[in-house]
Design a protein that fits this description.
Shape: globular
Order of helices and strands: HHEEHEHHEHEHEEHHHHEHEHEEHH
Radius of gyration: 21 Å
Largest sheet: 5 strands, parallel
Strand content: 5-15%
CATH topology of the largest domain: TIM Barrel
Strand order of the largest sheet: 8-5-4-1-11
CATH superfamily of the largest domain: Glycoside hydrolase/deacetylase
Number of domains: 2
Number of strands: 11
Number of helices: 15
CATH class of the largest domain: Alpha Beta
Length: about 350
């Protein structure tokens, strides 16, 4: 990693980042964010969350460089219409629709007049004071590392050990399995979170009052849309069923919940957990979805399959130098040149 940073620093000092930007016409870089921390989420899951300070640094860098920041809709439409003539540009996307988008990201975007797309999972929008179960379990175990929870919490004899990372992961998996085996609904999972918090002496009421790890409410989604944020689809339950008919129903539920909020033109989709397969494309097409984004790194061109659009996932684990290398087009251009060189049949 240190060698990579040294190489990138040298390439930037030689002006190769600026050169790459000029050579990346006909490309759209879609940035992906999951959450902007309300407290310490970026220390807990640095590959998923980003601190407000780092997020501001990213946005300010983009503005200083003068890179066009466009909405996803405009970026894709320009690529389709202009192809290789399109200036290199960037679209900002946010997955899931966490409350922290409304509380942390949106004010920073508005003050800089930057457009964004939010892919919303709508089940939790209807329950905006329920923390996302899997995340909340893992977060509380991390926050109370070293504690031991009685196994009786999940009707088992062996205790739930939080003494180290491996033990915490096993404890979390056992709690998830218990919730699944008991068929707990959202209310049952929320009650289990409260019980776990009491055993851990974790301030659960504070987490809920901050709406940390919760999704936006319907009013917050509506307010974001009114402010110009593009609200799009991410399934209703953050899950793609294995059959086309069930997938169609999931899309319909997602659209219906968004329509209740006042969002009637959702036509772009993001695969939950970045999991996708080509069999899904026909279902998306039949349901009038125009694009679908993945979590695979890369830039979009006019030739990119519309239902397998790559993105760059930014987070606290990404250094500022790596971010600049991606947002200049340098790393994606270097990858294209490597592929071209490897496919060259000349000796």
């Amino acid at each position: 990693m240190r060698a990579k940073q040294l190489v990138l620093r040298l390439c930037r000092s030689l002006g190769l980042f600026a050169l790459a930007r000029r050579m990346s016409r006909g490309r759209l870089l879609i940035l992906c964010y999951h959450g902007v921390s309300q407290t310490d989420e970026h220390r807990w899951r640095p590959r998923m969350f980003i601190s407000p300070e780092t997020f501001e640094r990213r946005l300010d860098h983009l503005r200083r460089c003068g890179i066009p920041i466009v909405s996803l809709e405009i970026g894709l439409s320009r690529l389709a219409a202009e192809g290789a003539r399109t200036p290199f540009s960037i679209a900002l996307t946010f997955d899931d629709g966490f409350h922290n988008f409304s509380a942390q990201a949106l004010p920073r975007l508005l003050v800089r007049h930057l457009p964004a797309t939010v892919y919303v999972t709508t089940y939790h929008v209807r329950h905006p004071r329920w923390p996302v179960f899997d995340l909340a379990v893992d977060y509380m175990l991390w926050a109370r590392s070293g504690r031991v929870v009685p196994g009786a919490l999940i009707a088992e004899r062996d205790p739930l050990d939080c003494s180290d990372l491996e033990s915490r992961e096993r404890a979390a998996d056992r709690i998830y399995a218990h919730a699944d085996a008991d068929g707990l609904d959202g209310a049952g999972k929320e009650a289990l979170l409260g019980c776990l918090a009491r055993e851990l002496a974790f301030p659960y009421d504070e987490l809920v009052s901050r709406r940390q790890l919760c999704m936006m409410s319907a009013d917050e989604v509506r307010d974001a849309a009114t402010a110009g944020v593009d609200i799009q689809m991410h399934t209703h339950r953050h899950h793609i069923p294995p059959a086309p008919d069930e997938f169609t129903r999931e899309l319909a539920d997602n659209r219906s919940a968004l329509a209740e909020i006042g969002v009637h033109d959702a036509a772009h989709f993001c695969y939950p957990n970045g999991t996708w397969s080509e069999w899904m494309w026909a279902t998306l097409r039949r349901n009038d979805v125009r694009s679908a984004t993945t979590c695979e790194p890369g830039v979009v061109s006019a030739e990119s399959p519309p239902y397998a659009l790559p993105r760059f996932l930014d987070s606290e684990s990404v250094t500022q130098l790596e971010f600049e290398a991606w947002t200049s087009g340098f790393l994606s251009l270097a990858a294209r040149l490597r592929r071209r060189s490897n496919s060259d049949p000349r000796p």
